[in-house]
Amino acid sequence: MKEADFLDNATLETFKHTGGNVLLTTIDDVIDWGRSNSVWPLTFATSCCGIEMMAAGASRHDFARFGIEVYRASPRQSDLIVVAGTIVNKMAPVLKRLYDQMSEPKYVIAMGACAVSGGPFYYNCYHVVRGVDHVIPVDVYIPGCPPRPEALLYGVMQLQRKIKLATIADVKRIQK
Amino acid sequence: MKEVIHTPVKALEEEEYHINMGPQHPSTHGVLRLVVSLQGEIVKSLKPHCGYIHRGIEKMCEKDTYPQIIHLTDRMDYLSAHINNHGVCLLVEDALQIEVPERVKYIRTIIDELTRIQSHQLWWACFGMDLGGLTCFFYGLRDREKILDIFEESCGSRLLHSYYTPGGLMWDIHPNFQKSVKDFIKYFRKKIKDYDRLLSGNIIFMERTKNVGHLSKEDAISYGITGPSGRASGFSCDIRKHHPYGVYDKADFREILFTEGDTYHRYIARMDEMHESMKIIEQLIDNIPAGDFSAKMKAVIKLPAGEYYQRVETARGEMGIYCISDGNKTPYRIKFRSPNFSNLGVLDHLSRGFKIADLVAIGASLDFVIPDIDR
Amino acid sequence: MNNFFKYFAEIYTGVKSLLIGMGVTGKYFFSPGQIVTQQYPENRKTLKMYDRFKGEVIMPHDANNQHRCTGCGICENNCPNGSIEIISMRIETPEGKKQRIIDKHIYHLSMCTFCSLCVKTCPSNALAFGQEFEHAVFDRAKLTKILNQPGSTILKGIEE
Amino acid sequence: MDQDKLKERITALVPEAEFEENKQFLTAFIPAGKLHTAAQNLKEAEDTAFDYLFCQTGVDMTKYLMVVYHLNSTKHGHSVVLKVKADDRVNPAIDTVCDIWRTAEFLEREIYDLLGIHFNNHPDMRRIFLDENWKGHPLRKDYKDEVNIVEL
Amino acid sequence: MASFIYDFSLLTKPIHEALYHWLPPVWALIAEMTLIGLIFLLFYAVVGLFLVYAERKVCAFMQNRVGPNRVGPYGIFQTIADFIKLLMKELIMIKNSDKLLFNIAPFIVIIASFMAIAAIPFAKGLHAIDFDIGILYVIAVSSLGVVGVLLAGWSSNNKYSLIGAMRSGAQIVSYELSVGLSLITIVILAGTMQFSAIVEGQANGWFIFKGHIPAFIAFVLFLISSTAETNRGPFDLAEAESELTAGYHTEYSGIKFAFFFLAEYMNMFIVASIAATVFLGGWMPFHVSSWTGFNNIMDYIPPFVWYFGKTAFVIFLMMWFKWTFPRLRIDQLLTLEWKYLLPINLVNILVMAFIVLMGWHF
Fold first, then answer.
1. Smallest CA–CA separation between E303 and chain C, in Å?
2. What's the CA gap between D44 and D36, in Å, rounded?
3. Regions of chain B short of the pLDDT cut 70
4. Which chains have 3+ CB pairs within 8 A of A?
5. CB distance E84–A103 less than 8 Å?
6. Considering the domain C57-154 in this protein, what is its CATH number?
7. Domains of chain B from N-terminus onward
8. Residue C103: enclosing H or E segment and its boundaries?
9. What's the predicted TM-score (pTM) here?
10. In angstroms, how far is the first alpha carbon of chain E from the final one?
């Protein structure tokens, strides 16, 4: 997909950096190419969106084409956590812990209305976190209730674009 | 002389070994947490901890009008979304004593059965995956997409539809509905044979499921295990037979009953239910009468003060809705008797003395949907 | 002796069932025609949603930038989770009558559950479902949309 | 057994029982003290055989708290609804029935969690959904939570 | 004989002699070892990456989907991307773990599989070392990997890892027997344990055809038990994903995890090449005695094509198993070994010995 075809280009501009020396940018390009094409998600789903995530991994939509079918059950080995479903107050510390257990670099996709903003449970509800970004930093938001698998694939492509903007210097800074 | 007190040497006694399955674990199908105490690999006891997806739907319903409740029942047992909604609609219709058109009843029954099939397909896919047969997952979901296409064509979305409203349907079915349903049944009758060849007849599968997790009929009733899991133990609990709603009284189908009650028969019960569901759909699909797709409803629905109870048969068992109304447009108290919550209670009883691998198989055969447990 | 034969019968049935299983996967392996994968970003041009597909709520505008929304607020009331907020204002029509028109029809896509109650209950059919599903963004604030286009007016003939 | 006979049967068992009219099922108010014996009898007696508790609900009626038992007999097919009041809103307590119907174990924990009704003799009376240190019981009508609830 | 055109000793011998001519023997040996080590390292990486890719494509086609296809044509660079990512990923040190053992375990696993490769002949004259007791060496070395698995599980301070490691230990210890016995069946037929001699012995027909039914049974038994020994499905109890999240390597991240990941595929490659060498004639072309013309044509196909073709076939069989069958339970796994595979194996050896004694084989 060409860059112009993506709908959310304006925000991406703010992430973009200028300059950098030639050697570093080449290494960056190689590493970012590797990272963006090999995003292994954690098997983590809380509710309905998890079913659509499974559907995205299944034959019809086939996550594997992007090289991200390697669902890892252990957070140590995964790069991406797709928060698919509602996060409630009791689950929030667990989610934070899972995120902390993942090794750098790690990415988060908030999938579905509940993870983006609390969705159907925003009002009148006593036990729901209103948006998973209150707990862990989110890279890409995918609205929908639940988003169809294509929407998830689109979100993953957005994430790949974002990963491609990273430089080694950035990651080092984050690790500090 | 001092008395010698013998104390048993503790050092050589085996310690209890606890492991924590979940909240993030591939085989708990969501965010259920099981604290399992083991002896070697054998499960000594098990404590389920729920609430990791407790969203307080019952409390939220007290603030919502009846049509709005539909969108919350969708999200309880998302794999039987249509059937849950059917329960709420029937509750409102019975309370207001509205006669819905025959067409609506037919359509609802057909869509309910399609929902049951897609739920069982997903269950089959996950059951295979939990036992380690990863390919099952893909075949199950491949065929499920066909039903989701039918839903999307008529209802507009794949998983959570909010298609039923009190009094009827959101809109009429798509003109292609009957044709695509018939195509699907033709397609699925072929594909379900693959399911049997791949998993049901497999020697490894049979060894792993037969005589594992036996549940007697008395226990099934006492624990309130309904749905295919209960019927595999001989507990005749099919609401479609005992308290027919929709047009189930016009369809000819068999209540799948077994007496063995082990994991294998819970599996077979669900496989047979898919055949029965297809049979029901085939009987009804050509006879959908013409007519309105909704009864006349007032803009604001108010239930007369009183108590109402409605039971429907979801893909996992008996779903009960107990509603106390004080005459307002919102219910005073609404309680969802979710089948999964009762089914969860038996997990400890079933898995004692079996291995961890069996625990996974038993859990998969009970077919949990965690958001339905926690609500 | 009986046990002896049983032992071999077990092996035979076991191996047979395994081979049947391998037959299923083998059959699919050697028939690439059965592949059902839709290659999403590549098929973007030809991808067609079902016409009832609920991707987002939109407010159709005609060529003269006119919509049908009166700002009555029924959709806001019917929305189960407050995804719609309506800011209306009162203006004076050229005839001197006071009229309520819509200022902003705010739609929180991030919260919408597509229950279709707003579209269904709108008395003037001002809302509809759009087919767009590529909504993923880097910034959550972008998911709050204003449905009425700037400078749009209400279609003649649709009064309260 | 039809409703009138059941009514007689329950009256014989619990003379204090009050019956509600015009309901979907036969509905009887049972005093809290007699619940356990009545339930045991109803389950074990051959002619009633209420072996299936298909729903157990806690309700906050503002004046009092109430637990509703929906019983069904898989053998005879008849149903009955038992209601038990807990007048004390601060420390409400009712006898458990989870030794009679095993399914009640989780249902009672849920009621305890969301409505705060304590069940005597329950083997594992803990909160089931919410954290142990959660304050209050959400399904009570006077439950207020300014931090977590955003009113629409 | 036409097969001499592909005799690689013509290539390797001059190098060997030149090295010994120009350098003192010690340095020549070191230089040779370094050279071979580097070649194997490269080979190892290429085969590992290719196998990961192949597995993903094979399972994709079995499951009616296309598999990786967006990174490079047909997705062939997919595993390279994975490798770059894993290389750059953070290595997490686990608190309260045994640091030394935790770090050393992945190396033990990978070195064990590395050592086994050395004894395998890829073509005539193309192997690192030709032991007299090649089969014994391979069996001994390949079972070293379990030490790494056990250490990994024990040192991670994680209960899932420990259970996974214990399962793996029980599994490999018992299946080692079947692997050994099924190879011994062929050793009886071949009369030698030297790989090169075994391959030469199949010049006029592969052992799987020469040895009648017992050889075929031995092949099947070897396939089953070697699948179990490599911890692959349906015997992947050590990392049973639905039970133990990721088994013994739950706590490993980054490149250390990649070692486990690669070692699995390399082990698969090694057992497949053993199977190909011992049962299917190794690099030896397909010959039918008395069809000289046919045999000559077959000889023109280079030996490494034969070798890799046969290995790929066995690997495909093993992948086919994995993507078809559900996983066994630990007690069933042991039952299968002790109640079925072992007795059949023993009887099979007797039958084979009898056949060889009577001279009934071809």
1. 27
2. 12
3. 1-15
4. B, C, D, E
5. no
6. 3.30.70.3270
7. 55-373 (1.10.645.10)
8. strand C98-108
9. 0.89
10. 22
